[in-house]
């Protein structure tokens, strides 16, 4: 009651107001679009309200405050900020004139605007957004309007995925964005910039991005770009659970060196430093190539430096080893076209050990303002051992045992990958012309050794038993060479272009697998099995000339393309020459796209394309694969390419003034000649004979959107509300024992979520999702089915005495359609009690995973012709005590970490 009383008093003392006006440049009286207008409290410079001007330079600023006077600030790139103390009341301040900053000789202007909109960049001023004292970048991103961060760390900007995060324009420890967002702290960041994702070459040549992905760049203050930053963490818990992690990065102007390490046996990547969701591990999280419960160790290093204005190098190296233990069970009911069905029960156990080395090095060479060279090289080696055991049995419609099998195997693999790409871009003149040459050389090599023992029993009128005790060694060698040449011809300078490109490529694959049966005479694996051995050579040649016409101005961009795709697939079988195959495919591909940017906050897009998908060689080659005696697969050399028409549309808008916004998308595709499996099941033995066929009539419609709004209360907190809905309609054509039929799956998943923050006291993030799915069939023997799933999550953070933080992560899942014997509902509750020490640079945490001991990953999967319920090993309840410490010497303090040069005395 006291809380409500105090809140009511606080709210009653605030008053609402509206301020409007027009912004122009002083020199030429030009209306300034996308200027930032914001209000600051005089006592602490906190942001009360902000907006941006329209295309006519108009702004309408609304807000509420208990202050009587407030600071008005107007900012625009290239102009001196306009600053004035005004009374808090409804008023029209008419026209404001900004002076050109070039008049201020030698003066550096730093804007305090919370948001700055440049030509193609949205920039946030970090100081304008309140977070807890030790907030990391992910905590900060959650506060920014238009950005969403899910529980796994995935980021979206107005519905567009963020696929690249940079620090001062450069990668930070590879391609995993959570290493950056969950380990860099807010206090070292000055600005957050958001742009459409482009390659270095595209940015250099001035090409537009497709707008489907976003890049976030974190800028560190220039004066802070020297010194050391890092974190260390370690924890020990019940049931022998443990973890450790450490990272240190040295900044020295253009040079950056980083080292990190981590390990645990709680299914965590190891670099989360106390992040609750990751260190607890998700219900289905795996890391290091395993499933179930994973023990992993990970080490990495990163180096970036610029040498003058011409040459820049960046590289990183990661070593990972993991060991996983998993046991899974599944029950599947498969439906047949005659109205009957059969049932398969299986239990599998696996132990997997993996060691991998990943290294990459990139060179950026900008010879001059017209010529650039980008070189990227990636290397990977993975050594893997898997021990697998499986037992399964299949029952017919009368629940009579029809077949069963036992399999035990030990498989070793050694995989090597070597990828190289060279990109050369040369610009001509001032109208946007350029020539680009891209050269690609990729090498793959895999060595395998397998020992397999299996027993398959077939019952019924023609019983049979297949016993195998075999050893196989295999080698796969892939060489891929490709090149693309692109020439851009400006028709109207900087507005209308014609791109002409030509791509050629050739991928050669050698695949050989020699299988030997155990010979009791020699007591060794010496009996060559022609049935299960293979010796193939593949060739995949591509030739693709194309043209694209592209137009762009301040509001519109549009393009149309046409390409001719020639592809030749060739297979040579040295064990079975009769299955040799050569197929040539010639197809046209075309499309168009358009985007309209009404203003700096509103975007709309529409695109259409027609594409062909060539069947794979494994689907084409008439080789009879009998490695699984219960599921025999044979290719179909008469397959045609699939043909797909796709329409995409989208819209987004965010009102900075009211902190409300929406984004939406829709995708529609129609496919003919789609390649589908055509399976015939023997009614007596239930052995599956599978081939492939083309089918027409595939339709997929996907759509979704989000609407969010944020309400802020001065000196109190904020409440963000978001409603999302996603829908999917999928019509597919299938074959079941020679009978063709269609299946239609319709699903919809609405979600509502709230993010309430009482500044410095408590944060509550509840969310509810309900999913509905309906499966219908046009074959009488199949029954239509409906599925429902409920999911509730609540994440809370409560602070006590500024030193103690209590974190909770609660999830409730209810699946009423799960089969008997599987858990239909479960509460999953994790909690952390965290105490700050060492002037907030350290923390001691007590974490309890799955307090209620109900963790489960039971799940149901429904497809066109089967329903399967399954579960596998999950992480069980444990408690862990951990310590975390961060250190930061960036800025002036960084000099004490730098080696000092010795003075010379003569």
TrEMBL record:
Signal peptide start-end: none
Alphabetical UniProt keywords: Receptor
SUPFAM superfamilies given in the database record: Carboxypeptidase regulatory domain-like, Porins
Keyword Isomerase on entry: no
Signal keyword on record: no
Top-level taxon in the UniProt lineage: Bacteria
Start and end residues of each Outer membrane protein beta-barrel domain: 427-885
Coiled coil ranges: none
Designated name of the protein: TonB-dependent receptor
Lineage, broadest ranks: Bacteria, Pseudomonadati, Bacteroidota, Flavobacteriia, Flavobacteriales
């Amino acid at each position: 009651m006291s809380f409500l009383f105090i809140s009511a008093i606080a709210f009653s003392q605030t008053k609402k107001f509206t301020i409007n006006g027009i912004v122009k440049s002083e020199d030429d009286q030009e209306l300034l679009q996308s200027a930032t207008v914001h209000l600051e409290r005089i006592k602490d410079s906190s942001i009360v309200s902000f907006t941006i001007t329209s295309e006519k330079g108009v702004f309408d600023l609304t807000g509420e405050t208990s202050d009587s006077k407030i600071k008005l600030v107007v900012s625009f790139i290239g102009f001196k900020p306009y600053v004035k103390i005004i009374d808090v009341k409804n008023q029209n301040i008419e026209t404001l004139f900004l002076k050109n900053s070039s008049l201020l000789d030698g003066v550096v202007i730093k804007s305090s605007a919370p948001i700055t909109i440049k030509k193609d960049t949205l920039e946030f001023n970090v100081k304008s957004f309140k977070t807890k004292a030790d907030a990391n970048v992910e905590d900060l991103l959650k506060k920014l309007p238009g950005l969403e961060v899910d529980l796994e760390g995935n980021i979206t900007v107005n519905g567009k995925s963020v696929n690249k995060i940079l620090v001062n324009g450069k990668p930070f420890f590879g391609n995993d964005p959570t290493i950056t967002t969950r380990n860099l702290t807010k206090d070292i960041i000055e600005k957050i910039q958001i742009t459409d994702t482009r390659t270095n070459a595209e940015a250099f040549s001035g090409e537009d991005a497709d707008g489907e992905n976003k890049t976030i760049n974190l800028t560190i203050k220039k004066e802070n770009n020297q010194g050391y930053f890092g974190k260390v963490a370690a924890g020990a818990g019940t049931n022998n659970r443990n973890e450790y992690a450490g990272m240190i990065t040295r900044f020295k102007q253009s040079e950056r060196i980083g080292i990190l390490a981590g390990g645990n046996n709680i299914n965590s990547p190891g670099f989360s430093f106390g992040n609750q969701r990751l260190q607890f591990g998700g219900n289905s999280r795996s890391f290091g190539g395993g499933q179930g419960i994973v023990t992993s160790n990970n080490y990495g290093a990163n180096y970036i430096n610029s040498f003058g204005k011409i040459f820049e190098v960046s590289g990183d190296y990661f070593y990972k080893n993991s060991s996983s233990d998993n046991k899974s069970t599944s029950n599947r009911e498969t439906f047949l076209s005659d109205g009957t069905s059969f049932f398969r029960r299986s239990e599998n156990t696996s132990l997997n050990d993996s060691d991998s080395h990943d290294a990459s090095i990139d060179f950026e060479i900008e010879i001059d303002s017209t010529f650039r060279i980008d070189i990227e090289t990636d290397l990977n080696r993975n050594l893997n051992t898997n021990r697998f055991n499986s037992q399964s049995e299949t029952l017919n419609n009368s629940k009579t045992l029809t077949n069963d099998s036992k399999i035990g195997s030990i498989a070793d693999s050694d995989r090597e990958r070597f990828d190289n790409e060279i990109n050369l871009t040369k610009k001509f003149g001032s109208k946007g012309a350029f020539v680009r040459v891209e050269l690609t050389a990729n090498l793959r090599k895999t060595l395998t050794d397998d020992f397999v023992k299996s027993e398959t029993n077939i019952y019924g009128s023609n019983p049979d038993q297949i016993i195998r005790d075999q050893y196989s060694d295999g080698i796969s060698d892939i060489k891929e060479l490709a090149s693309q040449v692109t020439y851009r011809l400006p028709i109207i300078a900087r507005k209308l272009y014609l791109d002409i490109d030509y791509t050629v490529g050739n991928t050669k694959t050698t695949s050989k697998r020699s299988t030997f049966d155990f010979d009791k005479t020699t007591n060794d694996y010496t009996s060559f099995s022609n049935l299960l051995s293979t010796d193939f050579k593949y060739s995949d040649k591509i030739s693709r000339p194309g043209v694209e016409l592209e137009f762009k101005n301040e509001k519109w961009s549009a393009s149309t393309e046409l390409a001719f795709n020639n592809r030749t697939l060739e297979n040579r079988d040295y064990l079975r020459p009769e299955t040799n195959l050569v197929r040539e495919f010639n197809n046209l591909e075309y499309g168009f796209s358009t985007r309209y940017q009404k203003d700096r906050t509103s975007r709309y897009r529409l695109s259409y394309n027609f594409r062909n998908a060539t069947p794979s060689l494994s689907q084409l080659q008439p080789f009879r694969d009998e490695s699984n005696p219960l599921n025999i697969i044979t290719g179909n050399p008469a397959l045609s390419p699939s043909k797909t028409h796709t329409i995409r549309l989208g819209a987004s808008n965010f009102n900075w003034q009211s902190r409300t916004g929406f984004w939406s998308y829709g995708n529609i595709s129609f496919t003919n000649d789609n390649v589908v499996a055509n399976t015939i099941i023997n009614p007596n033995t239930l052995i599956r004979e599978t081939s492939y066929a083309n089918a027409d009539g595939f339709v997929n419609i996907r759509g979704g959107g989000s609407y969010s709004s944020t309400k802020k209360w001065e000196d109190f907190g904020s409440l963000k509300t978001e409603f999302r809905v996603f829908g999917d309609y999928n019509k597919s054509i299938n074959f079941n024992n020679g009978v063709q039929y269609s299946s239609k799956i319709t699903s919809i998943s609405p979600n509502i979520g709230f993010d309430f923050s009482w500044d410095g006291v408590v944060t509550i993030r509840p969310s509810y999702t309900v999913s509905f799915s309906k499966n219908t069939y046009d074959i009488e023997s199949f029954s239509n089915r409906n599925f429902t799933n409920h999911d509730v999550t609540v994440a809370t953070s409560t602070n006590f005495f500024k030193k103690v933080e209590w974190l909770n992560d609660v999830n409730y899942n209810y699946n009423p359609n799960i089969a008997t014997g599987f858990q239909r509902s479960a509460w999953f509750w994790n909690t952390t009690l965290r105490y700050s020490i060492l002037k907030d640079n350290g923390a001691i945490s007590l974490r309890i995973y799955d307090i209620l001991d109900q963790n489960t990953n039971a799940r149901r999967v429904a497809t066109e012709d089967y329903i399967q319920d399954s579960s596998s090993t999950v992480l069980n309840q444990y408690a862990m005590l951990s310590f975390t410490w961060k250190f930061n010497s960036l800025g002036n303090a960084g000099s004490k970490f730098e080696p000092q040069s010795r003075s010379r005395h003569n």
